[in-house]
User: Fold these one by one.
Assistant:
Number 1:
Amino acid sequence: MSSPRRSVLLVPIAVGAVLLTGCALSDDGPMTSQNRDVAGFTRIDNQDSVDVRLHVGGPQRLQVRAGRKVIDDVRTDVRDGTLHLTFDHDSGIGGSNVVVEATVPKLTGIEASGSGDVDADGIDADALQVRSDGSADISLDGKAGRLALALDGSGDANATALTARDANVAVGGSGDARVRAESRLDAKVDGSGTIHYHGHPAVTKRVDGSGEVKPD
């Protein structure tokens, strides 16, 4: 017959072993950075959990910050003028603090299909297209002649610091969009999200669901 005390002691030992193993597996190593030379791009496609910081209006540069064990798994591939960001870690774990910071002369589009947030400042564009169908939050600063913003997931977009002459905004999920439009706002909600707007634009709206379109 086994000793009750021995059985009790085995439980915390086993739990401790699992916790230690988990810590080892999720340890990305000390934070480090890489400056990368990539082809020129004016658009970004963030497909993963990578957080992005974009600065518009200077010579192009790109830096990746991540744990030493996973930084080489952050892919920064440019195809047809679009920077595609993915995290290709074989084990499928780790990479919780990956940041890509880039400066570009011009920005015309942002697409986010993962959970990584995107912040962009200094925007000066005739037309800017932004789309998110994940849980990423997007923040925009600057000015644009025309803004096309589409949210199809649970992420939010804050573009109140981006002055747009005309804005076309579509929310198809549970996310909220905040925009600033001077002349015209075409707003469509299909779901539970809300479009908040600043300025005094002529508003055309369509709401199908429990969402709203309202001044902020």
Number 2:
Amino acid sequence: MGITLKYIKPLFYWMPELYLVLATLLYWVSTATLLNPVAFVLLILLTSQLVFNKKGLGLFLGSVLVLLNLYLFLALFSDIVASPSFTISVQKFLLVGGIFLVLNLIMAVKLLLKHIDLHPQSNKILG
């Protein structure tokens, strides 16, 4: 009858990867080029992370995506500072770009935290 927690819980677990795949597809479509190697490599890595769920790949992807989104924040603010006036189109650009980048950054951090072992088990070598 209704959607139970049994079906919702896996969606929350896979939410960072699914969102980042959709965001990469949106980026690829918005560039209007058929051959986009950056988007292609990101899609391959994200879908392989969805299929294999490897810790090392998750850490690598999370780190790269956090750094990439921080770079894109700098690019967004550079474009806004370079504009001669703060018009409606610049405000829309700031709002849409800012929301998109904040969501990307949140999901990249969630992906990174998902694969970081926050409580490592101690290994006792000498008794």
Number 3:
Amino acid sequence: MRIALAQYNYHIGNFEYNTAKIIRGIHEAKSRQANLVVFAELSVCGYPSGDFLEFKDYIDKCYRAIDEIALHCQGIAAIVGAPHRNANPKGKPLYNAAFFIEEGEVKQIYRKGLLPNYDIFDEYRYFEPATEFDIVSYRGKRIALTICEDLWNLYDNPLYTQNPMDRLAEKGADFMLNIAASPFAWDHGGERKNMLSRNASRYRMPLFYVNQVGAQTELIFDGGSMAINAHGGITHEMESFTESMLVIETDEMGRKTGIKPSPEADYDKKIENIYKALVSGIKDYFGKLGFSKAILGLSGGIDSAVTMVIAADALGVENVLGVLLPGQFSSDHSLKDAEDLAKTLGCPYHTIPITDITARFEENLKPWFKELPFDVAEENIQARTRAVYLMALSNKFGYVLLNTSNKSEAAVGYGTLYGDMCGGLSVLGDVYKTDVFGLARYINRKDEIIPVNSIIKPPSAELRADQKDSDSLPEYDILDEVLFQYIEKRKGPDELVQMGFDKKLIDRILKLVNTCEYKRYQTPPILRVSPKAFGMGRKMPIVAKYLG
């Protein structure tokens, strides 16, 4: 049997677009002599659809799309993902399902059994877990069809009480097919490959895996669809972050040696993948919302420089406007670094001094501030003045403002609400400062795009004289390690001290993180590239005493 794996980018709720793309894929697969073409999880409506799944009309449109798709399944079968109504009045109203379509009609519906309900996943909110699993028979082959999480329950401490693949294996199958909507995180690719390889080895049968690509608001999907032989060796792997179709002859799988998954990728590969993910995230956020132009404050620092390069890669240099907003404490070298970057990239830029405006604010506030010393209040006036200019240009000319704050700053609240924290999309909000430096080095791997001075100078907000980030924060290599252990690894204060960190340092950092939760509730959507990002996957109360 010849199977076509369709690694496509879908648009949530855009049924006309998704249906047309699936139909084109069916015809392409047929032209390449495929017998079966396989699309990703919930490909008909897009993943994740969120509370749209609670609308009757939304589900009706899914069914109508499947009817239209079925008309094109003549001489070829297709597997598409879509919600399926639960006929039982008890339980959740929907299943997360895979529809097997042949000769113009739906012949079989597989329902997902394992529903992830952690981090960014919230499937049990909408779907009923299936408890019965059947083999799909087609052209003399018995197919163990599963959906994403259904294959993830084979480790020493399983999360679920059932294992769909065990049940399917008992019924006898020639190979496994898994359709997925598995989002990118920098550590997830290796884990995913190991999981798929272990399944193939455990059940002693080939495995074909289809994932989607593209971005849906915060979530970025890297694809990485693949085929694995019965010994766990990867025989085919599709390019990440790229739409494509791969046709494989199933009977040849036994003759292909394959490559066992390697240990986790090195740091350079991690940074390269983060860069590609962020480009994909910006491109789809703008494209799917109908925007084309971005604006950002260009300070001469490394965060805005990296953001501008990534945005220019995603949108085109002509569509990214940098705005230099020098104030009383802006250094000449920062202005030059910002100008040099824009000129090197070929991006348009404007310069709007803010010194007179901030001085007027301070003068008007004198009756209340009186003789009080200069402090964070005056610093924040500068940041908010810059935001007013950026948002005015955004409103007038249709730009989307890109937020340039990094994850280290977001974690400890090192930013100004309604100032440098504003924007329509946060590009680096899930990238620690140390990895921002890694991205800058990756960008400059061939030519000097980002001025070297932006990379080597001490980071500074330049909101007061001779200011450096290290005046208020620990050095970033130490700060980021503590933040990673606390946020990603969920290590509490006692565990962190046992790991060798100074108790006073831990108390200080964790207090900053937890007392600044209210700020993170007001940040733009953050492109997710880590296993634990701020936003939909990290649910923390604002009003709480623990670690406060």
Number 4:
Amino acid sequence: MGLFTRTFSHKKWVDAVDRVTAGGDNGFNVRFQALEVDLDNIAAAFDTVASGLERQATINLVPGLTQSGTNGWVHGLGTASKAPSKGDAAGLQPVALPARGTIKTFRVLGQNTGNGTLKIELIRQEFTTSSQVSVVTITAPKTTSSQVFDLPRAPVAGTEGLDQKYSYFVSATLSGADPADVVALYGFQLICLTS
């Protein structure tokens, strides 16, 4: 037996013999109620099938980096930038990911007009040992003042699986920038498959 077995069976009316009514054993109400039961059973069967399918979850994050070095990131409306008079910045941001599934991509958008090294990492940390592993490492290229880099990257093989024993965070570090350089982060995006 499959996920659904039809229970409704239509009994044909005969012209000039059957009188169509709303009530009674052969009325519209009884027949439509039987159809409702079958439709509810079909919906339940679809829910059962769909619950086993992977679903894509997209998690968009505005940079909200907590200072983790000598100089932190300066936050504006929806952005994080290096301080105008500084050549470096470092910050961390926790990320809430589904308990089970697979990370497909980590994506970063931003700008880096100088020669400083801008490295953004998605890191997982084990709860019991605090052991850390870089899931994705992105080194941003130099851009012009009118360009934005958009860098989606797949995780390192073996780190893509989501598990409740890990917590995740983004690390963004800038080093060696000129104080006049424009370095900004506009967003982080994670795409995961969950079941």
